[in-house]
Structure formats: C-alpha cells, structure tokens
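#onboarding

Welcome to the new folks! Below is a worked example of what a typical request in this channel looks like: someone posts a single protein sequence, and someone else replies with the predicted structure as tokens. Don't worry about understanding the tokens yet, we'll cover that in week two.

Example request:
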Amino acid sequence: MVPLEAGLREAGGRADYAVRKLRAVAPGVSGSPVGTKFEKWVFSQNGDWVGGFWPGTLWMAYLRSHGDMFRTLALDWARRLAPRRYDTTTHDVGFLFYPSWVTAWRLTGDETWSAGAVQAADSLIQRYNPRGRFIRARGALDTRQNAGRVIMDTLMNLDLLAFASRRTGDEKYLNVAVEHARTAQRYFPRPDGSTPHAFGFDPDTGAPIGPDTVQGYSPSSCWSRGQAWGIYGWTTRYRRTGHLPFLSTARRLADYATRALTADHVPVWDYLAPQQPHDVKDASAGAVMACGLLDLSAATGRPEDRDVALRILTALCETCLTTRSTRAQAVVARCTRNRPAEDGIEISLPYADYHLLEGILRVLQPKDVDRAVDLSTAATGVSG
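Example response:
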C-alpha cells in the first residue's frame, strides 16, 4: 500500500472519481441520502440526522472542481433544512447545520446562512442539562425516556455552538460546548483510551449512572465510529478553546484507535466485539478517524498521526471505493451503520463520502478546506 502523501496523483484521482460520481448522481437525488440498499441511495425528506452531509459533500466537490452545479445544489439542499433550525428534539442539529449552513456562509458570505445556523444553535442549547452539565442526546425535551443519555456523537455537534459564540459575541453557546466536553471527558475515556458509545446520568440530579451503548457491541466495548467522533470532536474543542486537557483526551483516544487498527487500516465496526479483528468493517469510522488524526497532527505537530491518517485514507481509497460497480450511487462502500440492530451492515453512508472527501482535500487543498469549515486554533485558552 503506497502512502497517500507519496502518491498525490492517486489521491487526486480518487477525489476526482468522487466528483465524477457526484456529478452523475446528484441531479437525480430526490431526498437526503441516509444509506444505500442494493447500492442505491435511500432518502429522507427531512434529512433525518444526516441531512447536512449531502450538501456538505457537494461543497467538498465544489472545492475540488469549482463546478457551479455543485455550488447550486449545495445551496438548494441546505435550504431544504431550514425548518430544522427550530428542532429541539435532537442533538444532531450540529451535524445538520455545520457542513451545510455554516459552510454556505463561509463560502458565500450571505448572512442568511449565518443567522440560520445561530438559530439552530439556540435550539441545541435547550437540550443542555445544567445539573449534569451535559447535552442530552435522545428524545424530545418533554419526555423522560433517554433524558439522561449522553453519547459520543454529540462531541461532533458542539462546533455549531462555538460558531454561534464567534458570530454573536455571546459566550453562552461556547460555555455549553465546553461544559459538555468536560463532562464527557470525565466519564467516557477508560484508562486504556477506549470509550463506550453512551453514558447514563440521572437527569434530575446529574449524578452519573454508568456506561451504556446503542450502536456498540456492549457498554464495555469500543464502537469504532464513536471513538473516531471523539478523536475529531475533542481535537476541535481544543482548537476552539486552547484548553490542553481536550487535546490530551483526543491523544489518548487516538493512541488506542491506532493500536486497534488491523494491518489493512480499515476499522472493524467495534474494536472490542468478540469477532474482531475478523469482523465487518466500518469505512465511515476510518474516514472520520483520518480527518481527526490530520487535525490532531496539525495541533500537536506529531507526524505519526498524519502518517496513520494517510495510511487510512489510502486503504479506504484502495479497498472501499465503489469504482468497480456500475450501479453504485455512493463513493464509499463497506460502512456499517448499526450492527446490533442489524441495520445497514457494510453499506454506503453519507458521512463516509463527506469525510473521505474532507480528508483527501485536507491533504491536497488544506486552504480550501479551511475556508469551508475553519481549521483555525484559538489564540488563548479557557480556564480550568
């Protein structure tokens, strides 16, 4: 396997393959892709939790190709998410609005997109539990079910709050993001750097109950995509705050995940499931992890993290793309959505396409990715 940085022509070719695929498929897309069935996209009309990744992927294709079609479609699909600005039933408004509306504002300068993203942040902070200092992941605010459940994925939704504070000058958004990240930092990482998918709290008192899972094998296992969300999420929290403990937490998770990788550099769906390392793969975990490692390497100056990221991206490009299929509508195959529920075993997923393109362009066109998602680092740190 040739390291990606030593074969930029090959990397560019893979990015261009993604652009060609999107150029052929995107005009016929009738909803937000949520996954594939027999290699064809299955759609959601309201975006489900993944609706931001489709316009985000189109933005990445635009950065690569400068094609007006991608810009037009990215803006059109972002507009369709407008009603979700007021959605207080999910923590996933960050996934919905950062790669779509925040990126739209950063690339067009149209304040409509910035204002809408701030409104989504207002919806998100309503899910903050001040007693436990966490953002609840699941369930409507007027329901008790899942009122104390926190999951790793939320770390990736926090950057919408950091954005809102920068745009408004109101620190309340960033404060919620920091408190949630600190709570997760306190309870999720195990001594070896692995993490459970979920952790439970008493919603009335904020007292910790214990680890749990939804998409991992068990509360004591390590769901690979959750681990990847953690690497990326805590590194981003460090970049937005300068708070060094966030960086050290990302480092611990990255070291564990790197050790858990098999020789093919494509993560299994859960690093501690009984059948690993001979188990189904999750290429989406690899794409997210690669982006997180590139970010971590930039933050710490450690070339080892970048090398692992490049090896993962190379592996995904060599063994997980849909280049041999004439019917596939996605770019990345071999993703697993929710194995315990037997839902989406080694299919294609929209966040895999988005993060693969993000990862490749972080290597080939870092200034363009910075324009789209903001790779800057805070000049000063938060206290505590």
